[in-house]
Amino acid sequence: MIKPELYRRYWLTELICYWEGRLTTNHLQQFFGLSRQQASKAINQYQQEYAGNLIYSSSRKGYLPSENFHPAHISADVTEYLNWMTGQSARAMPAEPGYRLEHAILALPARQVDPGVIQQLVRALRNNERLDVDYGAVSNTDRDGRIIVPVRFVNTGSRWHLRAWCEKAQDYRDFVLSRFHGTPVPEGKLLAPLPPDTRWNTHITLTIKPDPRLSPEQQQALIHDYAMENGQLKINVRAALAGYLLREMQINTKWLDGNPAAQQLILANYDVVKEWLF
Fold first, then answer.
1. Are 127 and 46 in contact (CB under 8 A)?
2. d(CA 266, CA 171)
3. pTM
4. Which of 48, 187, 219, 262 has a beta carbon 3.0–4.6 Å from 210's, enabling a disulfide?
C-alpha cells in the first residue's frame, strides 16, 4: 500500500501535469517543503512506477504529459483541479475503511473539459494574455472565433465557468468550460488595460422570502430552514453572480410556479435588483 505522503506527491504531480501541462520540481518544493533534490527524487520515483506518463522537455524546462498519459491518482473531471486550485479542497487523506461512516454522495454527470483548453486558459490568466478561442454557446450555435482575456474561474454551484473579457462583445462574459472547442491559440499580451468589470465589482443585496401563497406553517418551516430574520433572508452577492445564486436556490424571477410548494421562495426586491439579473 502506497504511503500517504507519497500518494499526495503523486496526486499533485498528476494534477498539475495533466491540467496545467507542465510540472517542475518547484511545484513539489513549494507545496511539500522539499529540497530540489527531494522533489527531483519524487518525480523520478513517479516516472519509474508510471513509465511513459511524463516526458521531460528541455525547451520548456519541465515535465509534460505524454500523449499516452493515463492518470492513476486523479480523475479526468476538471472540478477536482479547480477545487484544489481555488482552495475549496484541502485534499485531506481519506479515512481508513473501518473508520468511515455510511454515506452517499450524489454525483452529477461530469462535463467534458479538454485539459488542453484548461492549460491554455491557466497560462493566459497567469500571464495576462489574450487567447483566440472557438466557443459554442447554446444561445448561438454558430461557433465563431473570438479573442478573450481570461480573468478568473468561477464556481456557480453546479458547474465551473471562466469569466473573461470578450473583444467581440467588448464586455465581460461567462464561458462554460465544456463549450470550448479545439485548443485556444495564444495571441500575446493585452493591447490595452482592461476596463473595470462593473458587474463583478458591484455588490447587491437579494431579499429572499417564503412564497406568500404558502400556509403560515409552511412559511415558518422555510424561515427556520434558512435562519431568516423577520421572515426574510438578505444575501449580499456580486451582481455578476446573482443570477446563478437564484438559479441554484430554484428561485425563478421570470414566472411564478402555479404550485407554491414548488416555488417555495421568492425574490422580494426584484424591482430593485432586476437590472443585474439575466
1. no
2. 30
3. 0.84
4. 219
Any long-range contacts for 22-31 (C-beta under 8 Å, 24+ apart)? 22/57, 22/60, 22/62, 22/63, 22/64, 22/119, 23/54, 23/62, 23/63, 23/64, 24/61, 24/62, 24/63
Report the 10 Å Cβ neighbour count for 116: 15
Q: How many Å apart are CA 148 and CA 20, to the nearest integer? A: 19
Q: Which of 117, 252, 215 is nearest to 175 (CA)?
A: 117
Q: What is the pLDDT of residues 120-174, one digit of tens each?
A: 999 999 999 999 999 987 666 566 789 999 999 999 988 899 999 999 999 999 9
Any idea what DSSP says for residue 165?
E
Residue 161 backbone phi and psi in degrees, to 5: -140, 170
The residue among 166, 157, 170 whose CA lies nearest residue 137 is 166
Residues linked to residue 180 through DSSP beta bridges, in sequence order = 135
Task: Determine contact, residues 155/162, Cβ cutoff 8 Å.
Answer: no
If one counts every other C-beta atom within 10 angstroms of the C-beta of residue 180, the result is: 24
